[in-house]
Amino acid sequence: xxxxxxxxxxxxxxxxxxxxxxxxxxxxxxxxxxxxxxxxxxxxxxxxxxxxxxxxxxxxxxxxxxxxxxxxxxxxxxxxxxxxxxxxxxxxxxxxxxxxxxxxxxxxxxxxxxxxxxxxxxxxxxxxxxxxxxxxxxxxxxxxxxxxxxxxxxxxxxxxxxxxxxxxxxxxxxxxxxxxxxxxxxxxxxxxxxxxxxxxxxxxxxxxxxxxxxxxxxxxxxxxxxxxxxxxxxxxxxxxxxxxxxxxxxxxxxxxxxxxxxxxxxxxxxxxxxxxxxxxxxxxxxxxxxxxxxxxxxxxxxxxxxxxxxxxxxxxxxxxxxxxxxxxxxxxxxxxxxxxxxxxxxxxxxxxxxxxxxxxxxxxxxxxxxxxxxxxxxxxxxxxxxxxxxxx
Length: 392
Fold this sequence. Notes:
By secondary structure, the protein is α+β, with helices and mostly antiparallel strands. Helices cover 34% and strands 19% of the residues. It folds into 3 domains: 2-103 and 371-388, no CATH class; 105-115 and 209-337, D-amino Acid Aminotransferase, Chain A, domain 1, CATH 3.30.470; 128-205, Dna Ligase, domain 1.
C-alpha cells in the first residue's frame, strides 16, 4: 500500500517539475511533445499510470545526475512495453536542449520541405514526383511552372497518386491516396483534396513495395525508421525500427494506429511489435510472426543512409523513413531533420538513444545552459548509504 502511494507521489513530483520549469515547456512547444496545454490534457492519464518502483525512480535520478529530470517518459514506455531502462532520454531534455544542439532548427524549417528532396538528395532513390505546389504555384516534375489545367492533364495519365503535405507534417497527417477513375471528374476530386491541404504539396506516383515487406501488411507501404548520428568519424547507425499498419489502413505510422518492431543490426525483427496500447508477437491482421522476420536488402538500406546523411552536415541526428521497392532497392520516403520522435524510437528498443555517445552528447548539449541541476545526488539503495548525503 505504501509503495503505491509513493508511486503516485513520484508522478506528482514529475508533473510539478515540468510545470515549474515552464520556460522549458515553452521552448519545446514546437516539438509537440510537452507544452503547458498538453500537460493539462495528459494530467489524468499520467496519474493513472502504475509508475516506477522507488528503486527504479532512484536509478533514473542517479543516471542523469547532476541534472534534474522527470520520469514521465520512463513511466509511459515501461507501461507500454514492460521494459524499464534508466537511460530513456526524457522528452523535455531532448526537445529543449539536445535537439537544438545537434540540429540547426532554422535551416531545418526550410529543408524539411519534401518538395526540395529531389534536389537536396540528388542521386538518392526516391518516389517519382509528378508535380509540386510551392508558395501557391504549381510546378511539374522538372520544376517548371504549370497551370491547374496542366496539372489535371498530367494526372489524368496516371492510375493513382499520393498527394502529400510537403512541410510541417507528421504521423501520416496530410497524406491522400487519389485513384484516377474515368467516371469521376478528376478536376473536382483534385480540387477537394488539395483544398484540404494547406501550404506546399508534393504529388508522387504510387510506390510498389517488395513482396516480402507486403507479407506483413499489403494495405500499407511498410517502412523502416533508421536513426543515425553524424560525427567527424562518420555516420553511426543508432537503430532500426520497422513500421506497418495494424489493419486495413494505408498509413504505417504508430501515431495513426500502426505497429512498430525493432530490428537488429542484421535486419532481423525482434520478438515483439508495439502499438501505443499493446504488444504483439504476430501481426494482428496477417498473423506473420515478427521474431526472425528478415528485412530484404537491409544492407542496401544502411548504405543509403550512410550516403545521404553527410549531405546534411547541419543535422547530426536524423530519422530516415525508407521503403523497399519491388525491385529490392531502398527508397527514401522522408528525412526527419528536427524533432525526430524519440518517444517511439525508445519504445521500439533503441536505448540509450545515442549509444555510447549518449552521456557525452548530454554533457556537451547542457554545458553552459540554464538546465536545472540537483544540489544532492539521489541514488538507489544499491549505492548503500553515503552517496545520498554527498554534496556536489
